[in-house]
Each structure stands twice: as structure tokens, then as C-alpha cells.
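ERR on first pass: missing label on line 2. Operator R.T. fixed the label and resubmitted. Corrected input:
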Amino acid sequence: MAKIELNGIRKTFDQTAILKGIDLAIEDGEFIALIGPSGCGKSTLLRIIAGLEPQSSGEVRIDGVQVDGIRPSARNLAMVFQSYALYPHLTVFDNIAVPLRMRRHSALARMPLVGRLLPGRARTEHGIREDVERVAAQLELSALLKRKPGQLSGGQRQRVAVGRAIVRQPVGFLFDEPLSNLDAKLRVHMRAELAQLHRQLKATFVYVTHDQAEAMTMSSRIAVMIEGNIVQIGTPAEVYENPRDIRVAEFVGSPKINAMPGVIREDRGLEVLGRQLRLNTTAAAGRCTVCVRPERMELGHGPGAIAGIVTHLEHLGAEAFIHVKVDRIDLPLLARVSPDQQLPEIGSAIHLGFSANAVRIFDAAGKRIDVTAPARSERVREKALG
Amino acid sequence: MTPRPRAIVWSVARHSLLLAGAAFILLPFVWMISTASKPQTEIFTKSIHFIPHSFALWDNFATAFGKANLWRFLLNGVVVTVSIFVLQVLIALPAAYALAKLRFAGREVLFALVLFCILIPPQATAIPVFLLFHQFGILDSYAALIVPFTISAFGIFLMRQFFKTVPDDLIEAARMDGISEFGIVWRVMLPTAIPALTAFGIFSVVAHWNDYFWPLIVLNSEHLRTPPLGVASFRNEEAGTNYGPLMAAAIVIIAPLVVAFLLAQRRFIEGITLTGIK
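pass 2 clean. output:
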């Protein structure tokens, strides 16, 4: 079990900065997901932790020990690849046994033919067999041990790759988009299996994905990476509810958060699409972006409601998305509603509202602005005084 | 229904053309077998006949094996071709792996040099290599037959192209599992490259089994002769103008390749389509 610390990791390929100074402390036994759009550097970061790629500067520590320049196998981490990377010429048993054989046998004992004659090899091999069979039983692969990877389904190959990773009991696991080659149904199933595996092993998991559903459902913390920086780290709920940057707000959550142009007035008040919000801020006056999650959008009139035209409806059974075109915004606003209620017709005029606590405000640079609702008690007192 | 007869005519024409081509290519082989089956008296007749009047194939074989040490020539052929291929693989695979998968300064230049080496015909370097071997004193030995071919630029190129298609993930998984770089070449790359290696093996074995030029230059001793050289010397010294046993000996030396082809026909075709040449 291990704590993995990254300090000031930078990586440049041919003068293109891929990672721009990553600091991250991954606690022992934590399941952390690195998410971000493709090309944000998350896979590169994982490969630097693994030791497959040298960083341009900065250091990686595993359990307090600096591991820069130490070979990948000596870092005692295991990695599961997107393509599974099973040895195509070896059976499932041999695939899982490879890391054990490389560790437990001497170089001479691994030689073909000659190795078999070495004393003690049979005993070690027996131990390897036991370990492989234990792991295979755990992953329900016992019946498949004699097959080659080519004869397995995607989900089975995935489990073999996991088996090869867990068999040598490493201190940490690195996953590089391990589920993205599976079909949707299997992906949901494997998500549950991996989360279960993490609870069983209690090892450190670092999980790279661009699929936020995987990150949200499995991890204890999410690190959102954008353009070579970690923009926010937090629990899935924190990242979803309290994005510190508009890029985080837009990347996390599907469908995407609604963004509307707004203004911070000189008197600290806020306006969106020309309507006043009952919120105050301490930020400087200027342009801002007002964001609201689709499920916090409410249909119907109300103070400050926004008028628009329904352009598209998506009925998904459990929920429905209403696309509403509003003047002065290019993208339609989305409302996520329960399909129980009467859905508006396409082309009909509609009003959208949202409560003050559903609003997340970002300044022109994309940073989150804290807002306060004028205290109700104050208002009550004002009323009382008036 | 009108195009039907025309289609038949076209089909007949096409097949006759192909048959003529096949006959043209097969004729020397048929002639060789025919001559090998005839007694001396029938070979030098004016009339052309393929089927011998009196069947003398076994006599000719007996004469051929009696007059020269054909078994020794075949053994030499096996020793030389197998040694060359094994050494070529030992050198080409690590080199190809480095050129395909490792990142180091000057890699592209090195690869360009390998490509350049493919362009150099072996005859161009024959004299310098001969002089070099004379200095080393290894002329007229197995080493002289094997050493010049141990580094195959074509082999490095072919394996490098194949290794390029092996996913990087597989190599990185091997590194995570603790396999060394040389271990990756032999334990991971070699097993995945069997089709390419078979293709290369075919080219290498055929080329060196049939090679006449280089053994002719470096050899004096009769006991080291490779099959083509053995048969050629047969003609000059042993059999004189006796073409029956000479053709019988020729059958013996091409037989291993023909048998190998028949046994591994599918692999041959796979290998040649894989490399897309010859």
C-alpha cells in the first residue's frame, strides 16, 4: 500500500508543454480518478508515475521514496492498459504468471530448457501456480486458464489484464482507460467489479478516464486535468456541485451545464440575460458567466424566468431533456425533467427558471466567483422596518 | 444468353495462355527429370522425347551418389543455411526492435543507412570481403560461407516494419511486468513476429541454399562444397559429359526446397504476401 506524491511534474515533447507543473498527493488506499478531455496530459501523467516515460522536471515519490530513474518494474506498481496488452502467444495462465515468473525465478531459471533442470525451480513454479489459480478464482477465470487471449471476449480479456496486475500484489494500481474498449453494458458491469476490487484490495488506485461516469461512480476523489494542469481536486460531489473553474463545470456533468452571459454590476448585484438575480458578490464589476445544471432548471413562470422556444426534445425513459433556444445565446439551454410531467411541444414558447442556490458564477477568466444571497432575515427585517 | 459462347471462347483462350506460360516455366524441370531418367544412349538422340524408352532414373541416382559425396553437399547446405538464418535472427531482431520501438538520437539516420545497405549488391563487396578473409586466414571454411551473410539489412528492415505494427502497450506491459529490453525482444516480440520471421526465413534459406557465386569464390576444398557448387563440379570433373547422373544430382539438391515448399505452401504464400515483394 502506498502514498504517491507528485511534485512539480512537467513534461514537454519537442517544446510543446504537455504537463505544466502537476502537484498531487494520492493517499494510501485511495481511488483517485484523473479525468479530462483527450490531450489534457492525463495518460502522460500516469505513464510518468509508472516510470514508462521520464518527466522533464519534478519528482515522483512512492511511500516517501523518490523513484525517478527507477525502472517501471521496480516501482512495484501494476498497470492495466486500454488495449489490455495481453501477450497474444501465451495462455491466460501464463499471462497472469509472467510478472511472478519474472520476480521469483532467477534469470537462469527462466531460460528455456536449461531452466527446467535447476534445483528449486519446481517449488517456485508450484507457488506461482497456486497464486495464479487463486487470482483466477477471484476473477472467475478458472475455466479459461488454458485459452489464448484471442479466444476471449473483451470483458474476459479485461479481467485477465486485471489478474496480471493484482497477482503480484503491487502497492498501487494504474488504470489507463481500461473500460473504453468495452460495450456500454459491460462497462457498467466492470465499473462495479473494479469498485468492488478496490474495496477488497484496499490498494491505491489511480484511474485515468475521459468518461466522467466512471470517475463519478468509482473514485473517492477526482482530479480534473485541463491543458496540462490539475484544475480541481475533490470528491465527485464536490467537483460536480462546486466547480472552481468554468472548464471543470463544463467538462463534468452530462448533459453539459448551461452557460449564460451575465454582468456583475457596480452595486455588487448580478444580472443574467438582462434579468436581475437576487444574489450579491464581492467580485469586481464586469462580465461573467452564469451556469446552471440542467436538472436545476425549472419549467414555468416566475420572477426572473427566461423565455425561449423549445427546439428539441429527448425522451430517455427515466428522464427527458428539453432544448430551449433563447435569444442572445448560441447554444440552446437544456432542462432535465421527469418525463411524468406534461412535456412541451417542439416549437412552443416556454419559460425557464432556477433558484438562486442553483447558480454558479464564473468571472471573465473562467474562475469561480463566490456569491451570497442577501440574508432572508435581513430582508424580513427591512420589510418589517419599512 | 448470347455472351455465353463468347465467354467460353475467352475462357479457353485465357487458359491456353496460362497453360503455355506454365509449360514454359516447367519445361526445364520436366527436361531435367526426363534426362535424369534416360540412359546415356538416349540423351544424345536427334528426336525429342520426354518419356524415356528404357527407365534409368535409379541407375543415374546410383551413379550420382557413387561418384560424388552428395550427402556431404546436402549436409553442408543445411549447416550453412541454418547457421546463416540463426545468426541473422540473433542480430536482426534486437536491431529491428531498437529501430522500431526505442527512442534514441540518430535512429532515423541509422534506419536510412540500413535501407541504403539493401541497395548494395553482394557482388560489389565480394572482393573486399574476400581480401579481408584472406587476411584473417578463414578462406575455404564454413566461417567464410556463413559470416558475410550474418547481418542482413533486408532482415532488419523487414522485422523493423513488422515490429512497428506491434502496439506500444504490449511492450510497456512487459516493462511493468519486469521483462528486460532483451527479454522483450525474445519473449514478446519474437513470438508475435512468427509470420514475418517465417517469410524472412524463406527468403534467407532459399537464397543461401541456391547461392553459387560466393561459395565458388571462397571454397577450394571439396568437402565444404554447398549443393549447387557440388553439382557444378560434378559436371566438370566427375561425370564429364554424362548428363544422366548430373541431372539426377540436380534433382537431389532441389528436392529439399521443393519438399519444404509443398509442406509449408500456405506459409510461403502468407510470407510473400506479407512482405509484398518478389
